[in-house]
Amino acid sequence: MLTLTENAQTVISGIVSGAEAPQTGGIRISQDVEGAGLAVAVANQPEADDQVVESAGAKVFLDPQAAVALDDKVLDASAQPDGRVDFAIGQQG
């Protein structure tokens, strides 16, 4: 299952809070429409078939394809001074 670094937990919590999402909210990672990459968006709640990863209050919702692709990965994130957020995916262990 996908794990989150402390940085990712902090950044994701900030994104969701800044978007004024409800307590059930998180970020949703899904396969993009072309199937070539992943898309990230703020979601108020998971979709019915999403896998939910929660760590230190940060919630990530993974659509079924993203859940398979990220099963053995670690998500890291950093916020830039200009407001941009960079996500990085690494291998667990």
TrEMBL record:
Superkingdom of the source species: Bacteria
Name this polypeptide is given: Fe-S cluster assembly iron-binding protein IscA
Naturally occurring in which organism (per UniProt): Agrococcus carbonis
